[in-house]
Specification:
Chain lengths: 578, 369
């Protein structure tokens, strides 16, 4: 063991014999790597919106015409209004359903309430694009809902899902698992003694719930509302699949269309759109940070003796149980059933009596055979694994340096978190410029997608690692130092093993996010580097619904395994931390 | 053996105002000594210890171990913590949960760079140190299966395994329950004597400091206010702070009659009458003086007794608390002052009685107020 230790390259950090420089060597190296990854796309993005682009791709004259076009036309503002309505609506739906679910699960004695977590775990494994498609199948013109309406009220009463309400509903319901998980952790972290104090003052349980529990949780709910609003604001899948078909434009789809939609790429236009969206998101995130900092004042995580108060609902608990089942069906069950049904059809023409007599496994047989389907599954697994494997150790080192306040290390935290402000579609456009203009032929390769998603998910890895390092008692490291171990040795022998659980959850989480992303790889992948989520997107555009469904179901079954691992690691990790 | 000179470490709060630290601490620790840094929280005792360990970099000052400088503010010399030959036990024990008992204790040997220990060496040394703290039979257990007291022993074993020149103990007993604390205190002392290791002990518990130390340094607001043996600190406190922080005491104020020499006696015209006091330091006539006297040093006598004259005050017993071996009496000295006395319970004095209290001059210690 001692040989290994002595021959392993020390990650330097040796405090200097003389009083030290302001930045240590590893901090400089890590910052340099981060800057090389993050700066070029950002610079290109801004530059392309201010300069004309010549046909060979080089920059021409400085111009404001792209912004002028944006702000003088009515299209930009109508998209902005659409985006806002859509984002507010879906945020409200998500928060309402998620909070209701969280309250029932965390604070009542509803039977079977713990199973809701299973639903959330399954949902984490469903790519957003697949989820959207499932709802389009359910609510679409030939879907089961409309056929019931046709039968009872006639054709003219049919609903049109390709509309603002359709977009808002699908997006909102899709966010419910996230809001449920976040709300239930908020509810779990409130100290029961606040509620006990209220009851000892003579307030009944329901009164206590309204004036203490909810009131104290309000800042948290507001912050969460804003977070979902931001996520919806920069979301792409629903607007692209639902909105474009119904001629409802939002900012993200505008960027997509001006980058790819109409033959010749309009760099300047999409650049100007991207910069505007970026600035809006920066503003929103700034607001969110202020709000969530305020919310933390109320957050009272107490370690010992904490036990949440559970409200006894009596007979009412069967109603809440029914409500949970209903919500599970709405959020997870129905879309999955619809997809399974579709995947077993030779061709799709809605849910008709005849369709029940032509179940077939043909789609799955084609899928399993050699060909582009199988390749894209491989590509996607490689993409997810590489992204996670790069991001997780990298952010672990950055976070450790930052938390322990090594000289200059705060810079790492700042830079690694910065990509959070770039919506995925904006980042996609920015990396597209870089790869197209790069002398090395990176454009269209899997490596280019891996690089882009590493940058995209760097902030998530950073948050995980940061929280993980914070949980390691400072003295555990001091004990190693006073035992005679150098800093690099301390990091390898003490910090990394103690961080293992956090790093595994971070790895799985980033994997799940990376393989589901559509908007990020959409503009970057080329022939031979297909990604599952993008393939699903293309299959829908081509109308190959049954192939899409079978591929989606296969993929979801794989991902549920990953997400179950994630759930269990995270749970065990929390047990260890407490 | 260890010399700390004019150590300064200032902490800055967010707004820039000073927030604790130490402002010029100097002391020396002799070889084999158990030296205690004692003081209330925020007095700078842990900061001092962490500076000695090398976990904090002082602003200025000198730290030298065995005449080899570890830190020198003038020449900007800093020996990194892992190159100082020091063992440390932390308040939280800092036992690594991902290692076994054996591995925890073996760690300092495994990471050692000066001497490469062979596998057999490591086994022998770790076994010996685990034996000493009574954990040998648990050596293959996971460290998380140990109780608080056992974790504490393991932390001690780990700190001692490479036989450091200096052992640092940062409030090692504060996380144990009262009974275990006394037991561990005795054991710490035994091990320290057995190994003869020079030790710096940090605590806020004065009884613990009295029981375990060869010498004690009392700190307040980042400065050492008194250094001495436990007896000296208790019997001859040099300031109001020391007198109040260590044990309970009675204090009164007054003016000195005629100049007094260091170690001599003098009469103070005090708020409870003229008192003959012992002067640890010389004082000039007319100086403002306070004096302190421990409750257990005061003698109580019935009013009718022949005791009279110097250093006797009269008062009424307002309260008597029976504590077993002794009883505590609160005596009201004519409405203005209170006197606390600890005396044998069987002296026939009860609440409501008027009594005479005698403050023996040898035990009535003058301090500058």
């Amino acid at each position: 063991m001692s040989q290994i230790a002595s021959s392993s390259p020390d990650i330097a950090l040796a405090p200097p014999r003389r009083r030290g420089p302001r930045f240590s060597l590893p901090v400089i190296i890590l910052s340099a790597i981060l800057l090389v990854l993050i700066l070029p796309p950002t610079i290109f993005l801004v530059k392309v919106s201010f300069y004309t682009t010549k046909p060979d791709g080089s920059f021409g004259d400085l111009t404001l015409k792209y912004y002028q076009q944006l702000f003088t036309g009515r299209f930009f503002f109508s998209s902005l209004i659409n985006t806002t309505i859509y984002a507010i609506g879906s945020a409200f739906i998500a928060i309402l359903l998620g909070t209701l679910q969280a309250i029932i699960v965390e604070r009542t004695n509803t039977p079977g309430r713990k199973w809701v977590f299973l639903g959330a775990v399954i949902s984490l494994g469903i790519p957003h694009v697949l989820y959207t498609v499932a709802w389009l199948l359910i609510l679409g013109r030939s879907g089961p809902i409309n056929s019931v309406i046709d039968h009872t009220f006639g054709h003219q009463a049919a609903i049109n899902v390709y509309s603002m309400w359709g977009m808002t509903l699908i997006e909102g319901v899709g966010f419910v698992p996230l809001t449920f998980l976040l709300m239930s952790s908020v509810l779990r972290s409130t100290d029961a003694s606040f509620e006990e104090a209220s009851m000892m003052s003579g307030a009944k349980p329901t009164r206590t719930f309204w004036s203490i529990t909810l009131r104290m949780g309000l800042p948290g709910v507001m912050a969460l509302l804003l977070l979902v609003f931001i996520r919806a604001f920069e979301s792409f899948e629903v607007p692209a699949l639902v909105g474009l078909a119904g001629n409802i434009n939002v900012l993200t789809t505008n960027i997509y269309q001006s980058s790819k939609g109409t033959g010749a790429m309009d760099y300047g236009q999409s650049g100007a759109y991207s910069v505007c969206l970026l600035l809006i998101v920066v503003g929103l995130l700034y607001w969110y940070n202020r709000l969530s900092r305020h919310a933390h004042q109320y957050q009272t995580i107490t370690g010992k003796g904490y036990r949440p108060r559970v409200i006894n609902l009596g007979k009412m608990r069967y109603f809440t149980a029914a409500a949970l089942i209903l919500m599970f069906m709405l959020v997870t069950g129905l879309p999955l059933v619809m997809l399974v049904f579709t995947s077993l059809q030779p061709f799709y023409e809605g849910v008709t009596p005849e369709s029940f007599s032509r179940f077939t496994l043909e789609n799955y047989r084609v899928l399993m055979g050699p060909g582009s389907f199988r390749d894209s599954i491989w590509n996607t697994l490689i993409l997810g694994a590489s992204t996670s494997t790069f991001v997780v150790p990298f952010t672990a080192l950055c976070a450790w340096l930052a938390v322990r306040r090594k000289p200059g290390a705060w810079v790492l935290d700042q830079i690694a978190t910065a990509p959070l402000v770039m919506p995925a579609i904006v980042m996609s456009v920015a990396f597209l410029y870089v790869f197209v203009n790069l002398p090395i032929p990176l454009y269209g390769t899997l490596l280019s997608v891996i690089l882009a998603s590493s940058v995209r998910f760097m902030p998530y890895g950073m948050r995980y690692a940061y929280a993980g390092v914070l949980q390691i008692h400072r003295e555990l490291e001091d004990a190693s130092s006073t035992s005679g171990a150098r800093q690099g040795n301390t990091f390898l022998r003490i910090v990394l093993p103690l961080l293992a659980a956090a790093m595994i959850s971070s790895w799985l989480f980033i994997f799940l996010l990376a393989v589901q992303a559509v908007s990020l790889p959409l503009l970057l992948v080329g022939p031979g580097t297909e990604i599952v989520a993008v393939t699903l997107f293309d299959l829908w555009q081509n109308g190959q619904v049954t192939e899409l469904a079978s591929m989606g179901i296969t993929w979801v079954s794989l991902m549920i395994v990953v997400s179950a691992c994630f759930h269990f690691v995270t749970r065990r990790y929390q047990v260890m931390a407490s | 053996m260890l010399r700390v000179q004019n150590l300064v470490k200032r902490y800055q709060a967010q707004a820039g105002e000073p927030a604790g630290g130490v402002f010029g601490v100097s002391f020396e620790v002799k070889k084999g000594e158990m030296f205690t840094l004692l003081g209330p929280s925020g007095c700078g005792k842990t900061t001092t210890l962490r500076c000695v360990a090398g976990l904090e970099t002082p602003d200025t000052g000198v730290i030298a171990l065995d005449s080899a400088p570890m830190f020198d503010g003038d020449t900007d010399l800093i020996v990194p913590m892992y190159d100082r030959d020091i063992g440390m036990v932390f308040q939280s024990y800092a036992i690594w949960p991902h290692m076994s008992v054996f591995e925890n204790a073996a760690y300092p040997l495994r990471v050692s760079r000066k001497i490469k220990y062979s596998r057999a060496d490591i086994d022998k040394k770790v076994d010996r140190v685990l034996e000493m703290v009574g954990l040998l039979k648990f050596k293959n257990r996971s460290a998380t299966q140990l109780s608080g007291g056992q974790q504490q022993r393991l932390a001690l074993a780990r700190a001692l395994v490479r036989e450091p020149k200096l052992l640092l103990l940062d409030e090692p007993l504060s996380n144990l329950d009262a009974q275990l604390r006394e037991q561990m205190r005795a054991e710490l002392k035994r091990i320290q004597l057995e190994w003869g290791v020079t030790t710096i002990y940090v605590t806020h518990d004065q009884a613990e400091a009295m029981a375990i130390s060869d010498r004690v340094a009392v700190l307040d607001h980042g400065l050492i206010v008194q250094i001495g043996t436990p007896d000296e600190i208790y019997e001859l406190p040099r300031s109001e702070f020391v007198a109040n922080f260590i044990g309970r005491t009675n204090m009164f104020r007054g003016k000195l009659d005629t100049a007094a020499e260091a170690g001599g006696m003098g009469v103070v015209q005090s708020e409870i009458g003229p008192m003959r006091c012992k002067f640890p330091a010389s004082s000039t006539a007319g100086q403002d003086i306070a004096f302190v006297v421990r409750p257990e040093n005061i003698e109580l006598h019935p009013l009718a007794s022949a005791h009279a004259g110097q250093n006797v005050v009269e008062g009424k017993v307002t309260n008597r608390v029976y504590l077993g071996e002794v009883a505590e009496y609160s005596i009201d000295l004519d409405g203005k002052f209170q006197l606390l006395v600890r005396a044998p319970p069987a002296n026939g004095v009860s609440a409501g009685d008027r009594v005479k209290a005698y403050l023996p001059p040898e035990k009535t210690i003058a301090i500058f107020s």
